Amino acid sequence: MRTKNKQGIVISKKKPNYPVLKPLNDYIHTFHRFYELPLEYEDLMRYESAFPLLDEDGNDTLWQSVSYGQSFAGEIFRGLLEIYAILTSGGVSESIQHLSVHRIDYCLFGNSHPFRIKIINLANDNYDYYYIKKADASRIYGLELEHILSPNKINYFVFHQTLVEEHIMGIPGDIFPQQIKDWKKHSKVRLAKEFVKFNERTFFRLLGDMRDYNFVVDMTPDFDQVQYRIRAIDFDQQSYEGNPKIYMPQFFKENNPYVQLAMEVLTEKSIKQYQKEERALTFKRIQLQFYQFKQLMKTMSSDTISTSKKIEELAQGLNEYHKTKLFSGTARMGQIVQLNLQLCLGIESVD
Asked: What pLDDT score does 350 carry?
């Protein structure tokens, strides 16, 4: 199945899951993303019942709360608490004695079919979330590129074909624009600036489908003002599609409030300056982690994470965008990502 918005952008609704093969598995071990877990994704699929999870207004959230048989539930809950301890403190500790699994949710919507685990601290009723998903090679590449290239650090790990991710906090991008109607201009400028930078870093690392419900807005108080950071929360569409516009959030109709805001408060000169700033900052991040970035590009460029038809289409589209022929003949999506980064950031070579 495929979806198409009013501006003609076609997205594969069901992207295939690409397995973690030996080269990526070696990378995961080398850079400490591997942990041996007490549970795997398939264990969570052994639930006995499920019911729709509704929001405060009674609307279907597309998540289901699941439950397990009495003989199996204790093992599941203990394993989930141990995984949470590994994710948050690097290993199982006495702290899990004060924790409880409050709820386990399952989502059939999306490519990774995630389980969302809600953990509650019994001492103070504070709660936290994390996710267990099917390990997908393209998603792992997306997480690694986010960790290395963006201003955000990502906490996740892999065990065989199971992926565990931390919860990324923020206000959902489709809800946030409702808050900006009465803002002063300088606040609007800061958010518009961040959207320009987000659009930029999404494109040069080729992270697709950044519609408003696939990112969040994180707000940080700073003296007498607030700074904004737009963070991707969905990495399933890392360099899979063939249309270059899919990697540019500005072209999705869902993001029109952000695009219109930028057009309202920013000049063309300012936009170009912010784009330049983001490219310079990303170049510095690569310099600081060059060895890991080099190994990631080497691994990604030998892996299969898309189809030959989409690779050919994207290569042609990026040739037109960059006014070059350098993308012609690229056989892997990883090669296209590497070349696009080189052209956007001015990197001479990562070999």
From this structure: 65
Q: DSSP readout, 152-180?
A: ----EEEETTEEEEE---SEETTTGGGG-
Cα angle, residue 30 at apex, residues 26 and 35 outer, rounded to 5°: 85
**Could you count the other beta carbons within 10 Å of the beta carbon of residue 20?**
19
Q: Which amino acid is at 63?
A: W
Confidence band for 165, pLDDT divided at 50, 70 and 90: very high
278: three-class secondary structure by DSSP: helix
As a whole number, the mean pLDDT across the chain is 91
Stretch (H or E) spanning 100: strand 99-107
CA distance 26 to 22: 6
CA 150 → CA 165, 270, 281, 297, distances in Å?
17, 21, 9, 16
* 125 or 118, which is more confident: 118
| DSSP for 199-259, written as a single string | HHHHHHTTB----GGGEEEEEEEETTEEEEEEEE---TTBT--S-GGGG-GGG-GGGHHHH
Q: At what angle do helices 290-300 and 268-288 cross, to 10 degrees?
A: 100
Domain ranges of the chain: 2-11+170-345, 20-166
Write out the two tokens for 121: 């601290």
Q: 128: closest CA among 98, 162, 157?
A: 98
